[in-house]
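Subgroup meeting minutes
Present: P.N., E.W., G.H.
Scribe: E.W.

1. P.N. recapped why we're keeping a running log of single-chain structure predictions: easier to compare across weeks, and new members can see raw inputs and outputs side by side.
2. G.H. added today's entry (291 aa).
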Amino acid sequence: MPHWISSAKAKGYDIVARVIDRFHLALRCRLCGAVIKVRLFTLMSAQPLCPTCVQTGWISTARAAGLTFLGRCADDQHYAFYEAPCGHQLRRQFEIVERVATGETGVRCDICHKENEQDEATAQGWRLIGPDPDGNANYRRYQHIDCEHVQRIARVNMQSGRVGCGGCGEKWTAAPSHLYAMHFVLPNSRELVKVGYSNNPESRLYHQLSRDPNMPRKLLRTIPVASGQMAITLEKALHRKLRDEHPDAVVDPDVYHGLIKVQSEVYDAALTAKILAELDAIASRIAPPAS
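Output recorded in log:
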């Protein structure tokens, strides 16, 4: 029919013939010359896609992203396989590769990335074991090569070498530490409680945290802990419990912005009794057995 022909031309195709039955047509792509089979209804109601042109687009997009297109993923039509410059094979979404090609984001090889992390750890005397058991993407689980002690460490600290072994080291992770609770009174009379850890809580209170030396503040409780590494673990568990059980007591950082040099882990003073009770419970749990 004449309107079939004009519709096909408007959409970049020439009609070659009817195929299979009266509901299907063979169309030749005016761009690449490939012949495709299309339902008449599709031609008249939508824009038929030429698989050859689509794949050519995938190939050119991959090239712009610095990759080599290998083929579509059979399990998910939104994914394809690519070869990275390092020679490893990647599985990525078409959308991600398009964003890489336009410079909106980058692409990394997971295999090379893991090897880099292993090399970083080896250079500092550690062995990479795996992801952080707490699920924090910024941390990894490492094993000290010398003493085989295992601990979670921020990757940025491993890269910079600012890391100590909680098993045999002499840095803050192995040195004795404290959990603490501190009380602050803001200029508007709002009372807050800060919970944290430090090897010297008094120094932290009077010389590190407060921006105003005249701000009323005091140390409510300190709990001695065997090592900085243990203090981190205990403190994080305590904060999770406080946030889960008393979310309304967590104070927005904007409240104390410019007054206390922290960004989190500050609670309303109404939670003071609960916090002190939790610290006492921790002290009971970690206290050495009586001889």
